[in-house]
Amino acid sequence: MEIFLGVQDLKVPAWEFHTPVMINQLRWDSVSWNNKTWVDSGGYQIMKKGIPLSPEMIEKKYKTLSADAYINLDIPSFPCGRVDERNFKHFEYLYEKEINVIPVVHGYNVEDIDKAIDFYSQYVDVIAFGGIVPPSLKGGRKIVIYLYHYVRKSVKKIHVLGAGSPYMRKIFFNADSVDTATYRVKGANGLVIIPGKGERYVGERKITWNAKRATEEEIDNLLSFLEKTGYPYDVDLRDWVNRSMINAWVMLHSDYEKETWEIRLSKEVDKMHREEIGEKIGEICNFLKLNVE
Question: Is the pLDDT reported for residue 63 higher than 70?
């Protein structure tokens, strides 16, 4: 499984780990590294902030960025919702401009998932699965797990957007690739990721962002892990950039060891037939619809 690190700016040089990276076209005008690079359209931010953006504008920006692949200008949908057919038009436009564009499939209703996959499969064999993280995660992760496996069984290759943490990789265990940018957010908020424990607060503020304060033993475990895995930089937990780099390293080199109901459910759903998963999705979608009404 490939892990793409989301890079927001030049302040946290995660590309120095020589791992694949994901950048947002809204934030970047050029690429200065040689890492495998994918470019996100910023579809969610565009929808949230009402930024006017057209396929023509995306094409122009994408062609200024030297990258390996580009995520389609996608209009997100909530689980069990309908696909916005403008996504198909955006994809075709970029594809015809000879851009290596990757389409996004969200957790639509089953009929629309099939429709989207049938359309995109005419052109490419890789799909990005979106909508797994808040605030798009309407209806809980249970429905998303079923939706993911339905899509997984329908395509050759799948990238799960926003699922790069060790825990999320355990849920979406059979994905071909994932990405994450949370290492930077955690570092900026005074948090470090302790292998096998999760996030801990090491900052000086009274606010701990609902995380436990790191104990001396946990800090020692972190330092030992960094030494054993060959972390290439000096360690300074007082500096947010250093914390962010450490978090990125831990995400890349550690696994989630515990078993949770979400991990167990994902393994169980993986064993089900595609048609059976589709029926279960229909049941959950109808339940969610009734509760909303």
Answer: yes
DSSP string for the chain: -EEEEE--SSSS-GGGG---EEEETTT-S---S-S-EEEE--HHHHHHHT----HHHHHHHHTTS--SEEE-------TTB---THHHHHHHHHHHTT--EE-EE-SB-HHHHHHHHHHHTTT-SEEEE---STTS-TTHHHHHHHHHHHHHTT-SEEEETT--SHHHHHHTTT-SEEEE-HHHHHHHTTEEEETTTEEEE-SSSS--TT-PBPPHHHHHHHHHHHHHTT--S---TTSHHHHHHHHHHHHHH-------HHHHHHHHHHTS-HHHHHHHHHHHHHHHHHHH-
Residue 70 near residue 41 (C-beta atoms within 8 A): yes
Question: Where are the domains positioned within the chain?
Answer: 2-180, 185-253
- CA nearest 180: which of 193, 189, 191, 169? 169
Residue, of 30 and 131, whose pLDDT is higher: 30
Lowest mean pLDDT among 36-45, 92-101, 219-228, 239-248: 36-45
pLDDT tens digits for range 174-221? 999 999 999 999 999 999 999 988 899 998 877 666 788 999 999 999
pLDDT score recorded for residue 136: 44
**Is 160 within 8 Å of 175 (Cβ atoms)?**
yes
- Cβ–Cβ contacts within 10 Å for residue 92, how many? 18
Phi first, then psi: give them for residue 51, nearest 5 degrees. -70, 125
The CATH class given to the 2-180 domain equals: alpha beta
Q: Is the pTM of this model over 0.90?
A: yes
Return the structure tokens found at 30: 């050029």
